[in-house]
Design goal:
Layout (H helix, E strand, L loop, with lengths): L8 H5 L24 H5 L10 E8 L5 H21 L5 E9 L7 H7 L6 H6 L4 E6 L9 E4 L2 E5 L9 H9 L21 E2 L2 E2 L19 E6 L2 E3 L6 H10 L16 E7 L8 E8 L7 E9 L12 E6 L5 E7 L15 E11 L1 E3 L2 E6 L3 H4 L24 H24 L1
The structure holds zinc ion.
C-alpha cells in the first residue's frame, strides 16, 4: 500500500493569485465555467484513437453538485491528456462513469484508511475501468488534498484543493510516477529528482507553494523545453517512467480491466404530454443489442438557467435490464418559494444529454427552456407593490395594520431557519 501525501494545507493557504490556469473548485460555477456538450463528456478521447486507454470510474460524495463535479472531471482529464501530448506519449485518460456513493471518513486520510486493497474491484469491472477515483468532501483536518493507493485515488473537491492538475497528479502516481521536487531534499522515499523549468513546477511536483496555479502542464522530460531550459534530466524523467509503465503489460493498470464494448446508442426525448411546468418527463430509449443489461447517465447542464434555482441538477444513471428498451427520468423544476422567486417570466435555457454509458453511446442532446411558473410570479417580491411597514400601535391593543407584517416576518424567519439548517449540514 502506497499512500502519498502531496500537498500541505499551509502551502495551499498561502497560494498566490491564479495565473495562467483557471482554478477549478466547487464555488465558481456556473458563471465562470464553460458549458459542455455531450461530445465533451463522451469524447475525452478523440475519434480514431487506438492507443492505451486509462479508463477511470469516479465515485463521488452525494453532496457534491453533479454539474460542478462533471465540469471539473472534464477539465482534469483534458489537462492529463494534454500532458501526454506535450510529453509525446500516446496515452489517454477517460472517465467512464461517475457514481454518487457515501464513503466512510471526513477527509482524504480517513477515506483512504477506510478501504482495503482490492476494494471497488467489482464496480470498476462493471464499468470497464482500471482506475477508481474517489472524489470527496474534506474537513482538511489531515491537511491533504489527495492520495493514491494501488488503482485508487482519493481527492478532495473544495476551494483549497482546487489545483487544476490534482487528478492528473494522482493518476500519475497510479502509473508509478514519483514526485518531482524543486529542492534536492525530500521526505518521500519514492521521489524522483528535483525538477522545474522556466520557473514553474511540473504536474508531479509535491512542493506546490510556489505559483501552484501556474504549473507546467506536463511531466518532467529532458526533451521538453521551456524558455530554452530542458524540463528534465536523465534521472528527472517522469515521461520515460510513464512510457515504461504503460508498455509493461504485466503491471500496467490500464490493461487490467478491458474496456466495455458498445452495444447500442441512447436517444432522449421530451414527453410533452407527461410534462408540466414543475416537471419535465424525459424518455430514454436504447437501440442496438438490447439483450444485455446496460446503463447510461442522463445529465443536466446549465446554459442560462440556474441550477437549484430554476431546476434541480440531474445526474441520473438509467439502468436497463435485458430486453428493456425505454425508461423515463424526470427533471424537477423548482417551484420557487416567495422569498427567492425569480421575478422574471422569461425563458431560461439548459441542456440535457446522456453520457458515460455502460456499453451504451449517446445519440442526441435536448435543449430545454424553463420559466417561473405563472402562479408563483404573483408572490415574487419585485412584482409586489412595496408595502409600507405597518406602524405598531402605541397602546399594544392591536391595530388593524399588523397582520400582514407579522405574516411576512414569519415567512422570513422560516427562510432564515432553512438557510441555517442548510449551512449546518455542510
Ligand atoms: Zn503526489
Amino acid at each position: 500500500m502506497n499512500k502519498i501525501l502531496i500537498i500541505s494545507l499551509s502551502a495551499l493557504l498561502s497560494a498566490p493569485a491564479f495565473a495562467g490556469m483557471q482554478p477549478f473548485f466547487a464555488k465558481n460555477i456556473p458563471e465562470e465555467w464553460p458549458s459542455y456538450e455531450i461530445k465533451d463528456y463522451n469524447g475525452q478521447v478523440e475519434d480514431g484513437y487506438d492507443g492505451p486507454l486509462s479508463n477511470i470510474l469516479v465515485i463521488y460524495d452525494p453532496s457534491i453538485k453533479p454539474e460542478q463535479l462533471n465540469r471539473y472531471l472534464v477539465q482534469q482529464t483534458a489537462i492529463a491528456n494534454k500532458a501526454h501530448d506535450i510529453n509525446n506519449i500516446k496515452y489517454r485518460r477517460n472517465v467512464v462513469a461517475a457514481i454518487p456513493m457515501k464513503l466512510e471518513g471526513d477527509n482524504v486520510a480517513e477515506v483512504a484508511d477506510s478501504f482495503e486493497f482490492g476494494a471497488f474491484d467489482e464496480i470498476r469491472r462493471k464499468y470497464g475501468a482500471s482506475v477508481v477515483s474517489l472524489v470527496i468532501n474534506s474537513n482538511l483536518a489531515d491537511g491533504q488534498c489527495g492520495v493514491q493507493t494501488s488503482y485508487h485515488t482519493v481527492t478532495a473537491f473544495n476551494e483549497p484543493c482546487s489545483l487544476p492538475t490534482l487528478l492528473a497528479h494522482e493518476w500519475g502516481h497510479v502509473d508509478r510516477l514519483g514526485h518531482e521536487y524543486e529542492h534536492t531534499w525530500s521526505h518521500f522515499e519514492d521521489d524522483n529528482y528535483a525538477w522545474r523549468c522556466g520557473g514553474k513546477p511540473t504536474i508531479m511536483s509535491a512542493d506546490l507553494n510556489y505559483d501552484q496555479f501556474d504549473l507546467n502542464e506536463f511531466y518532467s522530460d529532458p526533451n521538453v523545453t521551456r524558455g530554452g531550459e530542458a524540463c528534465g534530466t536523465v534521472t528527472a524523467n517522469n515521461a520515460k517512467v510513464l512510457l515504461e509503465t504503460i508498455s509493461d503489460i504485466e503491471y500496467a493498470r490500464w490493461a487490467q480491466v478491458p474496456p466495455l464494448e458498445k452495444i447500442g446508442n441512447v436517444t432522449i426525448a421530451l414527453d410533452e404530454n407527461q410534462s408540466s411546468e414543475f416537471e419535465k418527463v424525459i424518455t430514454v430509449t436504447r437501440d442496438g443489442d438490447v439483450s444485455q443489461a446496460a446503463s447510461i447517465e442522463v445529465y443536466s447542464d446549465a446554459v442560462t438557467a440556474v441550477p437549484a434555482t430554476d431546476y434541480q441538477e440531474l445526474a441520473k444513471r438509467v439502468e436497463f435490464a435485458p430486453n428493456e428498451t425505454t425508461k423515463t427520468v424526470t427533471l424537477q423544476l423548482v417551484n420557487p418559494a416567495p422569498a427567492d422567486a425569480i421575478c422574471d417570466d422569461g425563458e431560461r435555457a439548459l441542456k440535457l444529454g446522456t453520457r458515460w454509458g455502460e456499453k451504451l453511446g449517446s445519440s442526441n442532446q435536448l435543449d430545454l427552456t424553463v420559466k417561473t411558473p405563472e402562479d408563483t410570479l404573483a408572490s415574487c417580491a419585485k412584482d409586489k407593490e412595496s408595502e409600507p411597514t405597518p406602524e405598531k400601535p402605541d397602546n399594544g391593543n392591536g391595530g388593524g395594520g399588523g397582520g400582514g407584517g407579522g405574516g411576512s416576518t414569519g415567512l422570513l424567519s422560516l427562510f432564515s431557519l432553512a438557510l441555517f439548517l442548510f449551512r449546518r449540514r455542510n
